[in-house]
Design brief:
CATH topology of the largest domain: Tetracycline Repressor, domain 2
Distance between the termini: 41 Å
Number of domains: 2
Number of strands: 0
CATH class of the largest domain: Mainly Alpha
CATH superfamily of the largest domain: Tetracycline Repressor, domain 2
Number of helices: 9
Helix content: over 70%
Length: 198
Amino acid sequence: MDNKEKISQAAVRVFSREGFHRARMKTIAQEAGVAVGTIYNYFKDKDDLLLSVFEAGIRIRMDFLEELGRTSLPIRDQIQHLLESHFAQIREQQELAELILFERFHRGSRLRDRVLALQKLIIDQIAEFIRKGVAQGWVRPCHPQVVAQALYDLVQTMTACWVFSTPDEEADIFASAPKELADLIWMGLGVKEVGAHD
């Protein structure tokens, strides 16, 4: 593992443990086992480090979606697996998820535009997934970009509910959300006469 990856992984742990605003570069450096100056060889500041971590998370989801698309799983199951992976990542990095949600919706945030630009990458990939589904006959005709944005926002809203829930609510949402959302999405998008494409 190279230093950049060590620093990124250390940042996730420190941000999750201490919160972004309380986290110090010195602590991240100690966690990564590098000198503080080494961090600045790769990242301009703490904001840049956060965005790098967030981008890595987006890339993981994009790679996972691409990999699922190459499987023989029914589409509805692909959707559920993607949601299970998403919520598992959120559960591991709850503090980070809270921070990203804040940066996305807070108009005064210095990072908001860059966060939205990164999120658009996965929205565009979801739109392409839907576009292929329409062409192959297992998704009803629709506007892929609009539907992709709506689906992304649906999952983000449920993520926000989960992040800010009580411990009892959290367990229930985590257990139920992937299946319930997959069913809701598939019932809205799926073609009834899918035959072999089901």
